[in-house]
Amino acid sequence: MSYSIGQVAEKLSISPYTLRYYDKEGLLPFVDRNQAGRRRFKDNDFNFLEVIICLKEAGVPVKQIGTFIDLCMTGDTTLQDRYDFLSEHEAKLEDKMARLQHTLDFLRWKKWYYKTALQAGTEQIHYLPGTNHVDPAVHAEFDKLVADGADPKALGNLAEGRAKA
Amino acid sequence: MSYSIGQVAEKLSISPYTLRYYDKEGLLPFVDRNQAGRRRFKDNDFNFLEVIICLKEAGVPVKQIGTFIDLCMTGDTTLQDRYDFLSEHEAKLEDKMARLQHTLDFLRWKKWYYKTALQAGTEQIHYLPGTNHVDPAVHAEFDKLVADGADPKALGNLAEGRAKA
DNA sequence: ATAGAATCTAGAGCTAACTCTAGGTCAAGC
DNA sequence: GCTTGACCTAGAGTTAGCTCTAGATTCTAT
What we know:
Two copies of one chain form a homodimer.
Chain A: E1 2-3, H1 5-12, H2 16-24, E2 32-33, E3 39-42, H3 45-57, H4 62-74, H5 79-120, H6 136-147, H7 152-155
The first copy, chain A, binds a DNA duplex through helix 2.
C-alpha cells in the first residue's frame, strides 16, 4: 500500500505545503518517489510521521527533528543518541507542563477574582479602601479557599444553570 | 515606589526591548512617564505585568492580550467580557495540556522502545521478522505493561545507578 | 563639568515555520 | 486527443514576536 502526498496530508490534517517543507528540511528522507518523481508514502512511513508530529507538538524545532531523523536512518550505532534525545525532550516537556499548570492556576484565580467582582457589580471590592490598587489579601483569600479543599477549577465558575424552580 | 524599565526587566527576566515592544503594541497603557519622558512603573503595575506574562505563557497572542488590557482600563462595564476572555483561554489551556500529556505518553513509549532496543543491542528486535517495519505488537506490549500498573515515566528509564556492591 | 550608563523613538533586521506563486509535468476521465 | 486536477521545484511572501541600530537625550557619579 502506498499513498500520495495529498492522501497523507488529508490523513494527518497537515497541508501538502507543510509536508513538502518538511521534506526540504530533511525530515522525510525515507519517502520513496515513483518514476515520475512523485512522493509515495509507505505504511511504515507513518511511524516516522507520528514521531515527527509528536516532537513538533512537544515544541522541538524542525531542525532538531531533522537531526533525530538522521540518527534513525543511520542505524543501531545511534540507539543511545536517540534515547538521550528523547530523554532530554521528555524532561523539557515535563518542565513546560509544570509551568503551564502554574499558568492555569493563575488563570483560575483571576477568574474567581472577576466572578466575585461581577457578583458585587464592581471591581472595587478587591481594592484597598480609597485606592485603585488590588488588596493582596484578596489573593490570600482565594488561596485559603483552595487550601480548605475547594476545587480551584470550580471556584471561578459562574453558576449559570442554577435557575431551577 | 517606582521602577525604571531596566529594573522591571531585571525583576521579570525580560529584556527592556521586549517591554518597549509590548508598550508599542498597547500592552502597557498604565505605565506613567516622568518629566523626561522615561517610563516609571508603579508597584501596582506588576499586577498587570503578572497577567500579561501569564497570558503569554498560556499562548495568547500579543494583540489579544492588548484587547484584554483595554478591557481592564475601561472599567466595571467590561467585567463580564474579562471573565469570558479568561474562561475561553482557561479552556484552551486545558485542551493544550491534555494534548501535551498525550505527547508525553508517546515520548515515554518511544523511550521504552529505545531502552529495550539498547538492551538487545539492535532495533531489529522490534521489527516484524524479515522486514524493517516495526511490529505493532511492540506498542501493545508497552500498553499492557502500563495497564498492569507499571509507571510509564519509569518504564523507559535506563537503570544507570544500579552498580552497587 | 564631564564621562559613561541608561533611556528614548523610529524603524530596520532577524528567525521560525509555514504558505503560496509560477511555471512545468503527469495521470485519469470524457 | 484533451482537459482537469494533483503533483513537482525553486523561490518569494507572510506572520509573530522579538531584537537590535542609530541618533538624540538624560541621569549618575566623580
